[in-house]
Amino acid sequence: MFDTLSERLSGIFDKLTRRGALSEADVTEAMREVRRALIEADVALDVVRSFTDKVRSRAVGADVIRSVTPGQMVVKIVHDQLVEMLGSEAEPIDLNAPAPVPIMMVGLQGSGKTTTSAKIARRLTQQQKRKVLMASLDVRRPAAQEQLRVLGEQNGIDTLPIVAGQSPTAIATRALQAAKLGGYDVVILDTAGRTHIDEPLMIEMAEIKAIAKPHEILLVADSLTGQDAVNLARSFDERVGITGIVLTRADGDGRGGAALSMRAVTGKPIKLLGTGEKSDALEDFHPGRVANRILGMGDIVSLVEKAAQNIDMEQAAKAAEKMRKGIFDLDDLADQFRQMEKIGGMQGMLGMMPGVGKIKKQIEGANLGDGMMKRQIAIISSMTREERRNPDILKASRKKRIAAGSGTKVEEVNRLLKMHRQMADMMKAMGKQKGGGFLGKMMGALGGGGMGGMPNIDPAELERLSKQMGGAGGMPGALPKGIPGLPGGLPGLGGGRLPGLGGGGGLPPYPGKKK
User: Fold this and answer.
1) Cβ partners under 8 Å of residue 1, min gap 6
2) What is the DSSP string of 194-262?
3) In this prediction, what percent of the chain has a pLDDT beyond 90?
4) Do the beta carbons of residue 248 and residue 222 sit within 8 Å?
5) Could you point out which of 64, 208, 419, 421 has its C-alpha 20 to 30 Å from the C-alpha of 228?
């Protein structure tokens, strides 16, 4: 969502950080370009003016002009101001109220209220172990109630039985009664929307609010709305009184202006981001981490948290133990690909790495979509068990058979084997390091990967890991040398090249036995 803005700001700040000293004119020129970049990103004009004025007033101070690294000081000021604009602290959904806690979902038609309702219910059920009831109050859109019922079945969430002919207020009353009688912790009320804001919609929302007395009123807004998102948020807040915002389609090509504007105009926190169509594609909104992403500093903390939620920790611990012993066969490589797919694939992981935004075009040209991983897994699946455990026996005839069986070419099989050899050497080198190198730090941050549900994530360790990799608190950094499974042909990351999936480059010699 913030790709365009991030690219523009990175270019502006690169010019500043290359200069040894900054004059007031330099800062003024940079702020003029920042203002233009924010306006192009659909940020509301009033918000842009306030933001740039605050940054400039701090950036022209003596502490910055006389700083040893004035360019980096300006970037830090912009980062801090972005965090302040986005809300300073993350504010998750508040459930501190007598059960059942009513949550009312409002917004325009097509913004994703029904899908988001199901995502939130799934999240509360799986992560917080809450018993949730969903009820659709949309009696206008055809099959709206049926859609919520189907989503409930798919995600194992109870939904209020559909009774034809009832009004939205009658459904809300029935939902609250059913939630009390059924011992539910939370009841989510999915209200109707319109194609635009009108008086009947606002009257209906006010009537439902009066009956349900919701503890949370969440405005669901499409990230692609642009500057009109400000009017949308202001109208709902004035008439209904929202408590938070959920932005959907954050994975799209929107310019990010909605996120930067709505929080600043309404003063209400953005609580969640919808990052895809799948039922688990929902993230907490952390202002500091989003500011890091906008400024190209990456988001290692969110990456590790996502890994903790999606990766089989027992399997990961076994794989880590094998790697420490210098064992890494093709079955292990296939397992890594499958694990990476669970946390967003190669592009999703790289998007959270510090400094990767600067080589975005190279990454796009490297063909790192979901199809790439599926091809690699198909190649490995076409091998016999003996071949996967001992790739050295793979000669020309076997490679032709594997390529035919996986629908690929022999050249692709060779590239996969080359990458495996490089990674096997790297795993040996990492295993010999005290603490297991980067792998050991990742496993340590995840709490060792016990079997008791979610691992115990140490926030302090995550922050240290983030800063080590160039995250918050500093300028955009570089990737550590050699992260398993990353593509090759991308020079200049962490002082070397990463193991190659597809041509180009390769690694400088790794410690350990050469193949």
Assistant:
1) 223, 249, 250, 251, 252, 253, 254, 255, 256, 259
2) -SS--HHHHHHHHHHHHHH--SEEEEEEEGGGTTHHHHHHHHHHHHT--SEEEEE-TTSS--SHHHHHH
3) 30
4) yes
5) 208
Percentage of the chain lying above the pLDDT 70 cut: 69
Shared domain for 144 and 283, answered yes or no, is yes
- Identify the three-state secondary structure at position 186: strand
Verify that 462 and 324 share a domain, yes or no.
yes
The CA distance from 96 to 322, in Å, is 45
Q: What share of the chain is helix, strand, coil (3-state, %, to 5)?
A: 55, 10, 35
Question: Mean of the per-residue pLDDT values for the chain?
Answer: 76
CATH number, position 60: 1.20.120.140
Distance CA 514, CA 507 (A): 12
Question: CA–CA separation, 227 vs 152, rounded Å?
Answer: 33
**What is the per-residue pLDDT across 178-215, written as a single tens digit (0 to 9) for each?**
999 999 999 999 999 888 888 888 999 999 999 999 99
User: For 271-303, how does the pLDDT look when each residue is reduced to its tens digit (9 = 90+)?
Assistant: 998 988 888 889 888 888 787 777 766 555 556
The answer to whether residues 31 and 141 belong to one domain is: no
Residues constituting the chain: 515
- Residue 334 is part of which domain span? 303-468
Residue 503, CB half-sphere, CA atoms under 13 Å: how many? 9
- The DSSP bridge pattern shows strands 132-136 and 186-190 to be parallel
**Token pair of 515 as six digits:** 């193949």
Bridge partners, 187 (sequence order): 102, 133
pLDDT computed for residue 90 by the predictor: 82
Over its C-alpha atoms, the chain yields an Rg (Å, rounded) of 25
**C-alpha closest to that of 93 among 281, 265, 284:** 284
**pTM exceeds 0.85 for this model:** no
Q: Which of 86, 110, 141 is the last residue of a domain?
A: 86
Q: Based on the structure, what is the number of domains in the chain?
A: 3
Give yes or no for a contact between 354 and 478, defined as CB atoms under 8 angstroms apart: yes
